[in-house]
Write a structure and sequence with these properties.
By secondary structure, the protein is an alpha/beta fold. It is built from 15 helices and 10 strands.
């Protein structure tokens, strides 16, 4: 009878063989793969990748290997790509179920595109049929693009179960569990450095690698610069007096001296206001032309409202103008307090659907300033598809043009404006 120690040893050999095969076949993965450890834990349900090690039950691993010898190699490639593409560290993806399915599909598409004979499984034919079908709606099968398709178009219960069963290899931990890892665990920053190295090496070998375009497309998506939307909004803050106790300008010595010597009469009271940089006046412009509508606008508004409602930089008294515009300004909704944010987000009605011209919004904002309806404007956020006429002269406040996706055919944003792609701020 084979004891547990022998089983664990055999499982370790199978994993080592799989790792050696990947290193020989795909040498640009060698550094990243060397960082992945293996941890045998009898009784583990499924396979779990904790950011550093593959945790597995040796009995289950050997059973899967005996059924299909390529299974372990495929498993190792699968969890390695999750790490390199930073999938566990995308804390901004709100629908965890959709994100997990999207990442598994993207990873499997990459593996199949490499066409590695040693990794072929019986289920590959069914996977390819589904991937070809998905490619009709999502031309570049990155996790981000697939996730957006699921969020916009939805996914049936049957498809959800089928995708999860067919494309998943490991059990996904809740992403929140990756935020506070012990030092021995590789962090998101560690994986990002490894991803950059893989990308650089792959470019050198790309002519010799089957599926290199698919791998590079996913690496480009995972390593692109992502903006801190809250930090961007903080650029719109101005110095203002906020009503609250200001401990920084309160002298406890005089206060306690008065209490002890003059019959509980303090000689100094704490200031009831403090000067802080807060967001108060700014404009959100929404392009309501025919090509920008529905879920795109709702997604932008939900994201912006969510950040504003939680932002510590937001003043209690607000003067936020939400302006709708196509070729002309069609409406202006004014928000004066935090409490109105949620209400407006629920009952926002889009008007317009004409052509796109950005100039009327800037002219309208100038009019608001002349009429003293806006006093300390620091910034304007303009959500658009990018197919409009930009003003020739820069305004005297910061301007963000926010796009729902990248598009190489749109006109470049003027040098005086900041470009933000919405998929970077999800």
């Amino acid at each position: 009878m084979t004891d547990e120690r022998t089983i664990t040893e055999y499982a370790g050999r199978v994993l080592s063989l799989a790792r050696d095969t990947i290193t020989v076949r795909l040498r640009f993965f060698d550094t990243a793969l060397s960082k992945v450890g293996f941890r045998s834990v009898t009784g583990t349900r499924g396979y779990v990748f904790d950011g550093k090690s593959l945790i597995y039950d040796p009995y289950v691993l050997l059973a899967d290997y005996m059924e299909e010898s390529a299974y372990v190699l495929r498993l190792l490639l699968h969890i390695l790509l999750h790490g390199i593409l930073l999938h566990p560290y995308r804390f901004d993806k709100t629908e965890e179920k959709y994100w997990n399915i999207a990442t598994d599909i993207a990873v499997e598409n990459m593996i199949l595109s490499m066409d590695i004979p040693e990794s072929a499984l019986l289920r590959d034919g069914e996977e390819r049929i589904i991937l070809n079908r998905l490619a009709k709606w999502v031309p570049v099968l990155t996790a981000e693009a697939i996730y957006r398709e699921f969020m916009v178009g939805g996914i049936s219960k049957d498809s959800e179960e089928k995708y999860a069963k067919l494309f998943a290899f490991d059990t996904h931990r809740p992403r929140i569990s990756y935020k506070d890892e012990p030092r021995e665990i590789l962090t998101g920053e560690d994986w990002k450095k490894l991803a950059e190295r893989v990308k650089a090496e792959l470019k050198s070998f790309s002519k010799d690698i089957t599926g290199s375009e698919t791998i590079l497309a996913n690496l480009k998506e995972s390593t692109k610069k992502r903006y801190d939307y809250d930090a961007i909004l903080s650029r719109f803050a101005i110095m203002s007096e906020e009503i609250r106790v200001n401990p920084d300008e309160f002298d406890y010595i005089y206060y306690m001296y008065g209490l002890s010597n003059y019959g509980n009469m303090p000689l100094i009271e704490p200031l009831e206001y403090a000067e802080e940089k807060r967001i108060r006046d700014f404009v959100i412009a929404i392009d309501t032309s025919a090509s920008v509508r529905g879920n795109k606008v709702e997604g932008f508004l939900e994201r912006t409202y969510d950040i504003l409602s939680k932002s510590v930089s937001l003043s209690e008294k607000l003067n936020i103008h939400i302006v709708q515009c196509d070729a002309r300004v069609t409406s202006d909704t004014v928000i004066e307090s935090k409490n109105e944010l949620k209400e407006v987000s629920k009952n926002f009605h889009i008007r317009g659907y004409g052509a796109t011209d950005y100039r009327p919004v800037f002219a309208y904002v100038d009019e608001l300033k002349r009429d003293n309806k806006i006093h300390n404007l620091k910034g304007l956020i303009y959500f658009t598809d990018g197919y409009g006429i930009y003003p020739e002269s820069p305004p005297d406040y910061d301007t963000l043009f926010v796009f729902d996706s990248e598009d190489e055919y749109r006109m470049p944003v003027p040098g005086w404006a900041i470009k933000v792609v919405m998929e970077d701020t999800e």
